[in-house]
Design brief:
The complex is a heterodimer. By secondary structure, chain A is an all-beta fold. Chain A has strands at 9-12, 18-23, 35-39, 46-49, 63-68, 71-76, 85-93, 98-101, 105-109. Chain B is mainly beta. The chains are: A mainly beta, B mainly beta.
Chain lengths: 110, 121
């Protein structure tokens, strides 16, 4: 059972915006950086956002991240069919001494 | 270009053992923490273990403590996961991943393609 909670699914039409929430606690999100990962069908996960809001090289600025207290949010603007994937938040949990992932959110482009 | 290539997966009976390997290239392997992450069929991601650059610190998810051992050979730029006393619930694709900063707590910035481990009689 994951310690980070995400909505199971979100959807929107092409060109629209979606946001994905990730809820945790003071032992994880509250005191550590959050990352976001994209997993396209049948492929390995890929880092989208690190350090709460930084995009690695090659990640388009349509993807953004933010953090407030014990929650984090991933935003995707200008939604494209190629964005259909599972998205996971992740961070270190200082109480567990373990890296923890969110429950995962499936993004569907209508 | 950073490359991580896992191998060693396969079918094993409950209670059996398996050793996974991850060959790294395109970066200075000895400068990074490394991780194993797994994903059961149709399920989400689960972090399994981390190992420090020199192998002196290791962390494990509770469910594998005492059964799995993470190790590395910096001379061979290779990461390993020794899995003993395997259970059906260990069935998953196992990914090797690089930790993107100098500490255990950083993001997983590069991933391998994964290797499938199936535990079944």
């Amino acid at each position: 059972q994951s310690v980070l909670t995400q909505p199971p699914s979100v959807s929107a039409a092409p060109g629209q915006k979606v946001t994905i929430s990730c809820s945790g606690s003071s032992s994880n999100i509250g005191n550590n950086y959050v990352s976001w990962y994209q997993q396209l069908p049948g492929t390995a996960p890929k880092l989208l956002i690190c350090d709460n809001n930084k995009r690695p090289s090659g990640i388009p600025d349509r993807f953004s991240g933010s953090k407030s207290g014990t929650s984090a949010t991933l935003g995707i603007t200008g939604l494209q069919t190629g964005d259909e994937a599972d998205y996971y938040c992740g961070t270190w949990d200082s109480s567990l001494s373990a890296y923890v992932f969110g429950t995962g959110t499936k993004v569907t482009v209508l | 270009e950073v490359q991580l290539v896992e191998s060693g997966g396969g079918l094993v009976q409950p209670g059996g053992s398996l050793r996974l390997s991850c060959a790294a290239s395109g970066f200075t392997f000895s400068s990074y923490w490394m991780s194993w992450v797994r994903q059961a069929p149709g399920k989400g991601l689960e972090w399994v273990a981390n190992i420090k650059q020199d192998g002196s610190e290791k962390y494990y998810v509770v469910s594998v403590k005492g059964r799995f051992t993470i190790s590395r050979d910096n001379a061979k730029s290779s990461l390993y996961l020794q899995m003993d006393s395997l259970r059906a619930e260990d069935t998953a694709v196992y990914y090797c991943a690089r930790v993107g900063v100098s500490a255990a707590i950083g993001e997983l910035d590069h991933w391998g393609q994964g290797t499938l481990v199936t535990v079944s009689s």
